[in-house]
């Protein structure tokens, strides 16, 4: 018999208490009320540019049951569209949870970031959007071309499996200091 799972209702104050200002701990980029803690918010265009230049991002989906799922992906950006593919890198299956989650809930999020021991160089860029798995072979041609242009590994061996296209509706970003 499965045990019942009970979830505590979480409020903003639940998050603030452990990190009160008297303890001197700050979360880079934003506090839980949405205000800035330090650094600089990027414009939508800056966030898109920084994101597009990144080599890898984390891709988040949510299952039909509400379980989050996060995986690293290689990707390409064209305008307001981000694409990635299920490629030849070793996987247990090509019927991946991220694809099932997109079918159940197409609201997705990407996060790319830059970490440096010099924290004045920290940054992150996020893309929120709506995903769909491209099933028509004709729809895959252009996104695969974008991926091949960005990653030399795809030039020799283009992705043969599912291609996902995400129409981004929100670009957000933060950087620790203004870049010259």
- Given as residue ranges, the uncertain stretches (5+ residues, pLDDT < 50) are 1-36
Number of strands: 8
Q: How are helices and strands ordered from N to C? A: HEHEEEEHEEHHE
Proportion of residues in β-strands: 25-35%
Helix content: 10-25%
Helices, by number, come to 5
Shape: globular
Taking the alpha carbons of the first and last residues, their distance comes to 60 Å
What Rg, in angstroms, do the CA atoms define? 19 Å
Report the major sheet.
8 strands, antiparallel
Look at the structure and give the mean pLDDT.
Answer: 81
Q: What structural class is derived from the secondary structure elements?
A: alpha+beta
Key attributes of the depicted protein:
180 residues, alpha+beta, 8-stranded antiparallel β-sheet, 31% strand, disordered N terminus
């Amino acid at each position: 018999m499965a045990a019942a799972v009970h979830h505590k209702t979480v409020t903003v104050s639940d998050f603030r208490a452990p990190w009160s200002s008297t303890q001197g701990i700050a979360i880079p980029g934003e506090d839980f009320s949405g205000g800035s803690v330090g650094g600089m918010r990027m414009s939508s265009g800056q966030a898109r540019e920084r994101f597009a230049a990144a080599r890898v991002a984390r891709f988040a989906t949510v299952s039909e049951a509400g379980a989050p799922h996060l995986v690293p992906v290689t990707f390409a950006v064209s305008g307001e569209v981000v694409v990635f593919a299920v490629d030849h890198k070793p996987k247990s299956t090509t019927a991946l949870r991220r694809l099932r989650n997109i079918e159940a809930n197409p609201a997705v999020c990407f996060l790319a970031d830059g970490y440096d021991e010099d924290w004045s160089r920290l940054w992150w860029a996020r893309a929120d959007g709506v995903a769909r798995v491209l099933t028509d072979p004709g729809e895959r041609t252009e996104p695969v071309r974008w991926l091949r242009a960005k990653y030399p590994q795809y030039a020799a061996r283009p992705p043969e499996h599912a291609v996902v296209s995400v129409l981004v509706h929100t670009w957000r970003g933060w950087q620790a200091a203004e870049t010259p």
